[in-house]
Write a structure and sequence with these properties.
heterodimer; A: 5-stranded antiparallel sheet; 4-stranded mixed sheet; globular; B: alpha+beta; about 25% strand
Chain lengths: ~140, ~80
C-alpha cells in the first residue's frame, strides 16, 4: 500500500524494510506547516488519482533500488484532510552506508513531488482554499509512448 | 462509442464528481475527447495544455486511439509531498 487516508505509521515501514545488511537508515517526513507565501494555513487536503499514483510510487521505489546502492526504499503518501503538523508523506531508505541512503532518500522525495499524481489544497483562516501549483506531466516520457 | 472523462485535483471542481460521458466516433483519439469536453466546458480549455491524460494506471499520449468504455482521467500539474 502506498496511499492511505489513515495516519501514516513509521513503525510499519521500519518493520517492512528491516534487514541485517543495512548500517544506515534515512527517514524523510513531510508535514503540514502553518504558513505558505505569507498566508496563515489551517490545514491541507490531499487528493490523488489512485491507479497511477500507486503505480508511480512503486516505480520510484524500484528505480531508487536500481540507481543507488541501497537495500530498501519505501514510500507512502496520505490523502484526505490533514491538520497542521500531521505527516503527509514518508520516505524510508536503508543502505549499507549513509551516503547512498541520503542520496536515494533525497532523490525519492524530489521525484515523488515531480511525478506522482497527488494534489494539495490549502485551507486558510478566512475559510477559503487554493490548489497549489505543481509540475505538469504532459512532457513525461510515458505521454509520448 | 461511449467514453467517460474524470477530473482530478483542481479539475475536479470543473468537472464535478460525476464523470462526463460522451458518444464519439470509432477511432477517436484522446485529443478528440478533449476537444469535445472543451466545447462543453470552455473554462477547461485554458487548462488543457498543462493537463496530462491517463487510462487506468498509465499516462497516454494525445494521439492514443480510445476504445469503447474507456475512462479518461485528466491529470493537472501535480503537487504532492
Amino acid at each position: 500500500m502506498h496511499l492511505t487516508e489513515d495516519p501514516l505509521s513509521l513503525d510499519t515501514l521500519l518493520t517492512e524494510t528491516a534487514n541485517d545488511e543495512s548500517g544506515a537508515l534515512v527517514i524523510f517526513g513531510g508535514t503540514v506547516r502553518n504558513l505558505n507565501d505569507g498566508q496563515p494555513v489551517l490545514g491541507m487536503s490531499y487528493s490523488a488519482y489512485t491507479p497511477l499514483a500507486e503505480k508511480t510510487l512503486r516505480d520510484i521505489e524500484t528505480e531508487a533500488l536500481a540507481r543507488y546502492a541501497i537495500t530498501a526504499c519505501r514510500l507512502i503518501h496520505r490523502t484526505g484532510r490533514l491538520a497542521l503538523g500531521e505527516l503527509s508523506v514518508l520516505v524510508v531508505v536503508r543502505a549499507a552506508h549513509r551516503p547512498a541512503a541520503f542520496e536515494a532518500a533525497r532523490w525519492a522525495i524530489d521525484t515523488l513531488k515531480q511525478r506522482v499524481p497527488v494534489w494539495k489544497e490549502e485551507h486558510y483562516a478566512q475559510g477559503d482554499s487554493r490548489f497549489l501549483e505543481g509540475t505538469s506531466l504532459v512532457n513525461h516520457p510515458e505521454q509520448s509512448t | 462509442m461511449r467514453i467517460e472523462i474524470t477530473g482530478h485535483g483542481k479539475l475536479k471542481r470543473l468537472l464535478g464528481d460525476t464523470p462526463c460521458a460522451f458518444e464519439l466516433p470509432l477511432e477517436s483519439t484522446v485529443i478528440d475527447a478533449l476537444n469535445r469536453l472543451a466545447e462543453r466546458l470552455p473554462d477547461l480549455a485554458v487548462q488543457l495544455p498543462q493537463t496530462a491524460c491517463a487510462l487506468g494506471d498509465s499516462l497516454v499520449p494525445r494521439d492514443r486511439i480510445l476504445q469503447d468504455g474507456d475512462v479518461l482521467a485528466l491529470i493537472p500539474p501535480v503537487s504532492g509531498g
